[in-house]
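FORM 7B - TANDEM STRUCTURE REPORT

SECTION 1: FIRST PROTEIN
SEQUENCE AND TOKENS:
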Amino acid sequence: MTRILLLFLFPLFLSAGSLHLPVQTLSKDKSEATVEVQQISKGVHGFVVRHFTKDHSVIIADAYVSDFDTTNKVATLHLSKYDGLKQNSLPNGNWEVQVGDEVILAFGYSRALLIAPSESIYHIITKNIHGVEWIHPDSFATYLSYNAHPTPFQEDISGYCNLAEIGLLYTYVEGALFTQDCQTLAVIQVTPVELKQGELKLPFYSRVEEISTSWWVWGAASRPLEEYTPHYTELLVKYNPTSKSLYNYIKNLKTPEQELISQFDIEE
């Protein structure tokens, strides 16, 4: 049963890879755009590309899906400045998004990172989910060690995923596997699946023995993680306060994390 459940965890709207769509409309302040798409999840990240010629183009804006009209098949995108390829020695363009520019959504969704509490769970999941290239968490642990952040937060995850061109994040927490966008941490799918944990590894399973800390790095990320489930459950709720599937999962918990139900912006 576990294998059957996990085999269907690749987002269905990505069967053809990343989505390439033209901008249909723009808001007056150009902070939002719309595209037409058959199916998409809120929180899916991407960017806007301006094509100057057949062989010359540039990314001009960051984007993520803020709403999806299932009736009219129209997705609303929140637009912001793109700094994923920031290089201070190069000039920056001041291009504004226009109708007809190309939107690329779910870029990097063919590559995935898994956060799991143990080696056994890591191997069960990665061996049973197909359609993605798994990037070993050793690489993420090394990235955290370089930044002296033994406890990963959203900024750490999105920064690493941008560097490694990873689009999907899978997080296993308390009897469920969450499929998330690696930049926004938006929950795309929730799949209940009970897996035997084995020996707990903090902050997540990797073969890196210890993630470095530093006295000159401050904040919650600079302190070693003491408990797995509370931290990752709090991250899930923080970046998905309107997710009905996550709300139902939290509501049914029999652990202290059930108290996070009060942080949702959902009415029964």
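SECTION 2: SECOND PROTEIN
SEQUENCE AND TOKENS:
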Amino acid sequence: MERRGRSNDGQRVAQQRGTGKTVNRSRLKGIFVSVLVLLVLSGCAPKVWYKPHATVSDLDRDESECLKQAQRESGEPAVHQHGGFAKERVITNWDIFNSCMTAKGWSLHDRDALQDLFEQSAEFQQAQSVLPAALQVFEDKKRVICAQPDYAALFAKSPCQYKNITFQQLADGTSITPEERSLLIRYRTEMEALYKGLANELRARGTDKDKQYADYIGSLQDNVTNVYLDVLNGKITWGEFNQRRKELAAKLEVGRKNLYHPTP
């Protein structure tokens, strides 16, 4: 059975019963979807503490409480790190510590086997956002559209990538021509299909946040459609269209950041 305590430098240590050998272990805190908490001991330590639905805070609290129960001061002299003698030292009864942890619902398991099992579980798969991969597919397909030479005249008025919109294009006071109108309708149809594909992928295989972002994408599509209709019907100029494109793209980016990387 593995014994646990603390070394002088504050690191967690593990002792194998009966060997008298103490080995420092660095601690890796990890929370997997609030379902599994592993205290992974590096090096050759094979065991980890496991408790379903626990957090790192739960682990810290329970360890602290169990150490208080398991530790006592000894009046026996002991050699300290500078070679002198200390009159008292703290002795930890690891049987009491382990029994306390067990009573609180924790158990020791083989680290690699437990981690492999969890990574195959539905909870772990659900924790993995598909947004990065889905966005990569989206951008790859969009680059193909952007590279089509048939769209050259359209992109001279409004670039494929909104970030490439120039000051001159924002100031463009001209209205759409019949040729440009035909190209814009075709481009809008292709881009609408891309966004629908992205949203469908997030809903089908994504996390709860991915699904929320898919809904957010959908909520903006009416606004996008209205902007396209306004320029197609000559209600706004190319410059106004480009400005509104930038505003909608920025809104989409802000929504994504607020969802996946909220600021305190």
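SECTION 3: OBSERVATIONS ON SECOND PROTEIN
The first strand starts at residue 2 and ends at 6.
The chain has two domains: 2-126, 128-260.

SECTION 4: SIGNATURE
Preparer initials: ____
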